[in-house]
């Protein structure tokens, strides 16, 4: 396995900029933690959040969903095809099929995906911290 950047930092910045006004970018930290539990758990987190009635939770779900979609797009450049998020959160068979598809990836492909996803989430966290600090500094400047 060799390292290739795939513009992870640029894509992470775009996502954080897009979602920072929804006040959900702190989810980046949860994303980074979730990587350790596997691809299927990372993929499925948006389903849980999108079923919530709270608008902020749904915004978090959209952030997770778009992060996965961007990650899946990035991975196609490596020749690894990952499922997209066009699954209903009420269709158990579809959810199981996606999880099975992720479990059926070769061990090498799983390792590559997890390595790239880890770096992608690290970039999300980095940009989250940068924008969070700026917002806090602006509040302190006004005081």
Outline type:
globular
- The proportion of strand residues reads under 5%
Write down the secondary-structure element order: HHHHHH
How far apart, in Å, are the first and last alpha carbons? 51 Å
Poorly predicted sequence stretches spanning 5 or more consecutive residues: none
Which value, in Å, is the CA radius of gyration? 16 Å
Largest sheet: none
The beta-strand count equals 0
Helical/strand content category: mainly alpha
Total domain units: 1
Assembly state here? Answer: single chain
Write down the overall mean pLDDT.
87
Into which percent range does the helicity of residues fall?
A: over 70%
Q: Helix tally?
A: 6
Write a brief caption for the model.
The chain has 143 residues and is an all-alpha fold.
Describe this structure in words.
The protein is an all-alpha fold. The chain has one domain. Helix content is 71%, strand content 0%. The chain contains 6 helices and no strands. 27% of the residues are buried.
List keywords for this structure.
143 residues, mainly alpha, globular
Question: Strands, helices and their partners?
Answer:
Blueprint: H1 8-19, H2 27-34, H3 39-50, H4 55-76, H5 92-103, H6 107-142
Helix pairs in contact: 1-4, 1-6, 2-6, 3-4, 3-5
């Amino acid at each position: 396995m060799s390292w290739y950047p795939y513009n992870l930092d640029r894509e992470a910045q775009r996502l954080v900029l897009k979602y920072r006004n929804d006040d959900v970018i702190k989810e980046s930290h949860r994303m980074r933690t979730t990587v350790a539990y596997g691809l299927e758990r990372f993929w499925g987190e948006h389903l849980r959040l999108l079923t919530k009635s709270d608008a902020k939770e749904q915004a978090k779900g959209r952030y997770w969903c778009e992060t996965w979609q961007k990650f899946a797009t990035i991975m196609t450049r490596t020749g690894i095809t990952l499922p997209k998020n066009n699954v209903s959160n009420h269709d158990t068979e579809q959810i199981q099929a996606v999880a099975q598809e992720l479990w059926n990836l070769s061990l090498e492909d799983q390792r590559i995906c997890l390595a790239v996803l880890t770096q992608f989430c690290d970039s999300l966290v980095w940009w989250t911290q940068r924008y969070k600090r700026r917002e806090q500094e602006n509040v302190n400047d006004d005081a």
